[in-house]
Amino acid sequence: MNQSKNGFEDFKKLKPWVEENKEDYYELMAYYKCAMMEVETKFHVLSEEYSLLCERDPFTRNPIESVRGRIKTLDSIQEKLQRRGLELTVESIERNLDDVAGVRVICSFPSDVYRLRDALLHQDDVILVEEKDYLAKPKANGYRSLHLIIAVPIFLHDHKKMMAVEIQFRTIGMDWWAQLEHIIKYKKDFQDSEELRNRLLECARASFRIDTEMEEIYNKSLDMRRAEN
Ligand code: 0O2
């Protein structure tokens, strides 16, 4: 997820705002951190269960490769609000942004993305707010991932609060492309060429072909192992 180009400069610029809004801002960020941890825990629990199932049944596998959480940096928050013509206030952050808390779930094969999505959405404390399927419909540059915005409760000492969390599901292949594309050009101010765009798009397509092929190979190998048993 996006990092500031010059974190120190951004920090200096936003320092007076932080000083002024310290209490409310840090309180809201603490709530987002709690929500992020709630969602990370949900996937760690699923991963534990899948591992257990693997021990019992050698034909199953754990689809979760890794789970990573992050809280959006203040400069990224400010940039997004500014881009949308919105003011930077603590209320505005909570009202207008739904990706302050983010969790990225990396899985093995493309079909795992939907399997994990379903496993999460079956949980009765999870409310689906929005779904963007960049797997079924990749972005023009080749980016693939399934994005969900969910609302989850965090349980505080005297009340419960619903918080928004963005979840990105992608395969290892989709993740390496997105990470490298991020380093190369995502949201960077330079005039790229059609040639570079096309080459990146071709890398995304090639990576997806390999993802699909690997899943087919896995399924075939599973059939062969089953037949031998
Ligand atoms: P961060 O917090 O630094 O990770 P936006 O594009 O942010 O104005 P929206 O609707 O929130 O609006 O965007 P979307 O489509 O839901 O995607 C948001 C996040 O998905 C991004 O977060 C990236 O993590 C990832 N993403 C989306 N498109 C691309 C892409 O083309 N390449 C790469 N590498 N990642 C992408 P941010 O904005 O980076 O914020």
The quaternary organization reads as single chain
- Say which CATH homologous superfamily is assigned: Beta Polymerase, domain 2
Structural class by sheet pairing and helices: alpha+beta
Bound molecules: ligand 0O2
- The total strand number stands at 5
Backbone shape: flat
Q: Into which percent range does the helicity of residues fall?
A: 55-70%
- Averaged pLDDT, please? 92
Biggest sheet overview: 5 strands, mixed
CATH architecture identity: 2-Layer Sandwich
Total separate domains? 1
Q: Which H/E pattern describes the elements? A: HEHHEHEEEHH
Low-confidence stretches are none
List the helices and strands and how they pair.
Layout: H1 7-56, E1 64-71, H2 74-83, H3 90-96, E2 101-107, H4 110-121, E3 127-133, E4 146-155, E5 160-171, H5 172-184, H6 194-228
Helix pairs in contact: 5-6
The site of ligand 0O2 has 15 residues, from helix 2 and helix 5.
